[in-house]
Amino acid sequence: MKKYLINENQRGLLFKKGKLEGLLSAGTYRFFGQREVEIVSIDAPIVSSRCSLDALLANEKIKSALNVYDIPAGEYAMRIVNGISTSFLREGRYAYLKTQGCEELYRFDTSSPIIENVPSQIMAKIPALYYQRVSVASYEKALLYLDNKLDRVLESGVYYFWKGFTDVKVIPVDTRLQRMDVACQEILTQDKVNVRINFVCNYRVTDAVRAVTQLNSYEEQIRLYAQLAMRDYVSKARLDEILENKDAISKYVFEQLVSKESELSVSFSNAGVKDIILPGEIRAIMNTVLMAEKKAQASVIARREEVASTRSLLNTAKLMDENATLYKLKELEYLERICEKVDTLNLSGGSNAITELASILRSK
Question: Which of 51, 71, 142, 299 can pair with 55 through a Cys bridge, CB separation 3.0 to 4.6 Å?
Answer without folding.
Answer: 51
